[in-house]
S-adenosyl methyltransferase (Prauserella isguenensis), 283 residues
Amino acid sequence: MTSTPGRNGSREAQLPTVIDPDVPSIARAYDATLGGKDNYEVDREVARQLREVTPEVTTLAWDNRDFLIRATRFIVGTVGIDQIVDVGSGLPTVENTHDVAVRFNPDTCVVYVDIDPIVIAHGRALVEDHETVHCVQGDLTAPETLLRDPEVAGRLDWDRPMALYQVGTLHHVADDRDPAAMMRTYVDALPSGSHVVLSHFFSPGDEDPEAAAVAERLEHAFLHSPMGTGRFRTREEIAAYFDGLEFVDPGLETLAYWWPEGPPPENLDPARRLMIGAVARKP
Ligand code: SAM
C-alpha cells in the first residue's frame, strides 16, 4: 500500500458508546423490520408504526437486503473486487456482505463501518473468526475522518480498486448536511476501477403518483418517529450521489428490478417502488 487519504488521522467526532434501550436506533428498528432479534421494544414500536402506514415496508426492507446480496455477488463474483468498505452496515440480521463475499473469494477484505455501538458489539463478535473482516465504529457524515481512520484506511490497498457501499444510509442524512458533497468526498478518494453500491428511499413524484402518496406518508412517519430521519429523494437527487461514476447496467433502478433472480416481479406494490439503487464504476 503506497497511498492513503492520510493514515495518521485521528477521530475528530465523538461517537456514541452507550446502548440506550429506551431510545430507538436506526439499525435496531431496521433489524426489527427484517424480523431480527437484536432490538428492543422501542425499536419494535417504530417498526410497528411504519407497518401501520404500509405493511409492505417489510418487503421493501427485504428488497434492500436482497439488492445488497446481489450487488455483492456482482462486485466479488463478476468484477473480481476483493476489498469492500460497507458504510452504515447495520446489524448482521441475515446474509451480510462478508457472508456473500467470502463465498466467492475467501480472502475478501470487508470493513464494516457503523455509528451504532450495538452494531459494533455484535459485528465484532460475528467476525472474530474472519481474519479479513473488520468492524469499525465511524460516522459516515464525516467522510474524511472515516476514510483516514487507521482501522479503515490501514486495512485497504489504495492502489487497487475497492467497493464502497452506501446501502440504505444516505436517506438518514438531512438535506442541510449535504449528502451529495459527502458522496463526492468518498468518490474522490476511491482508486480508479472502484465501484459504488448505493440504495436510497425514492420519491417518484409525477412519475408514479400512487407510490408518491405512500412515500409522503412514510417520510412523515420516519421524520416524526423518535429516529427523526428518513428522506425520500427524487431520482435527480439520488443520481447526483453517483457524480463522476459510470452506471453498471441496469443503472439506477427499483431495487426489486436490479438484476432480479428469476423473472422480474410483476405489479409491484407501491411501497416496493420506493427504493432505487445502482452499482457504478469510477473510471
Ligand atoms: N446497510 C445495511 C443494509 O442495507 O442492510 C443497513 C441499513 S440501515 C437502514 C442504516 C444503517 O446506517 C444503520 O445501521 C445505522 O446505524 C447506520 N447509520 C446511520 N447514520 C449513520 C452515521 N452517521 N454514520 C454511520 N452509520 C450510520
In short: Residues 26-27, 30, 64-65, 68, 88-90, 114-116, 119, 139-141, 167-169, 172 surround S-adenosylmethionine (CB under 6 Å). The chain has one domain: 58-209+230-281. The radius of gyration is 18 Å. The first helix runs from residue 26 to 33.
